[in-house]
Fold:
Amino acid sequence: MVKRLLRLMTELSSHRWISRIMGAFSHSRISRLLIPAFIRTYHIPASQAEKDPSEYATLNEFFSRRLKPGMRSITEETDAVASPVDAMITAMGNISSGTILNVKGQDYKLEELLNHSPHQELYKKGFFFVLYLSPTDYHRIHSPVTGKMAESDYIRGRCYPVNEFGMRHMKGVLCRNERVITYIAHRAGEIAVVKVGAMNVSSIRYSDESKRAWEIGEDLAYFEFGSTVVLLAENGIFTPRPGLEPGMKVKMGELLGFLRPSG
Structure:
């Protein structure tokens, strides 16, 4: 009964008009008064931020903060794929005939996650990571490889939570929420960075709308409140780093695995 009630409340709160209200507040000057409490509540390492907390004009500006130079190291391994975010690995593994298996007890079809994009054919036997960003985490998204934009796709959707409850008890959250997908072509093939919006404020923005190419670790996009990144590697081009497993925390720039040309 309790789970049914929570599910109903979540369904009601996922509507875009509520998201817009929350978004408007987080962009308002008065929201900056919540920054100290936000830091305390989520144990945010504010000393790593580019500016002092008092210098941020809004809560959203603090949430999508940049870090001081040198706060993250980018892997220097040859043919590396770097973590695009600070996050927990919710799930990872081989994609089975176009299906991402057992993400918090649910399976996801690539065709739904990628909104029936022709790109789905490249990933049906590829590799995936589901990377969850908690409110504590740094919320900018960086390029996992050096490459050029093959395509960008915006998919309008809902704003369900992507936390433990939402992922386990709401059906198909990753395929139903707002998404921005960046397909990046690199020397070994293609990688898809699927940015999934979350409850209350789901805006996902590119750091530079005019940019079409990135070096590994370069600033790509950011969330205007917490969410998840699904990272997809094309069929037959990716080998994960030994020892990685669901439940582990990774930092932006940390080695996730290695690329090899297909064929």
Q: What stands out?
A: The radius of gyration is 18 Å. Confidence is low (pLDDT under 50) at residues 5-14. The chain is about 20% helix and 30% strand.
